Amino acid sequence: MSFSFDLSVDLTPLQHWNTNNVFLVVMCQHEDATVTVWDQRIKREDTVNHVLQLNQEFVEYYLADINKNLKDKNVKVLLRWEVMSTVGFYYADTVEIGTLQVPAKHTKGKRKYRPGPPNRTENY
Q1: Across residues 53-57, what is the average pLDDT?
Q2: Domains of the chain, with CATH numbers?
Q3: Under a CB-based contact definition with an 8 Å cutoff, are residues 81 and 24 in contact?
Q4: Burial, 75: exposed, middle or buried (Cβ in 10 Å; 0-12, 13-18, 19+)?
Q5: Model-level pTM?
Q6: CA–CA separation, 85 vs 27, rounded Å?
Q7: If 0-12 CB within 10 Å is exposed, 13-18 middle and 19+ buried, where does residue 81 land?
């Protein structure tokens, strides 16, 4: 399944003297399975991308439903960031940023699915 999403996130608080880069990931989770659908590495020097404003950004990696278990199900959408330090330990965190309603009918072809806005749980 292919879809687009909107994401507005300020990574400025994560950027400091000991930050080498931040690895940002959007994941979909259903039951015990979590799948990465989009990612981006943001370097400390890349100040233009410390505040991201993505509109109708398409996923980089399709959400596969080989066994057709996701039909007409809600899938959690998660945002994960990993701060890769210059010196010392890496640290990471994950927050739920919404849900995605998977269509009851899967279609074949190269058409990209554009759901309505996700049901956001909080603003980040």
Answers
A1: 93
A2: 4-101 (2.60.40)
A3: yes
A4: buried
A5: 0.80
A6: 22
A7: middle
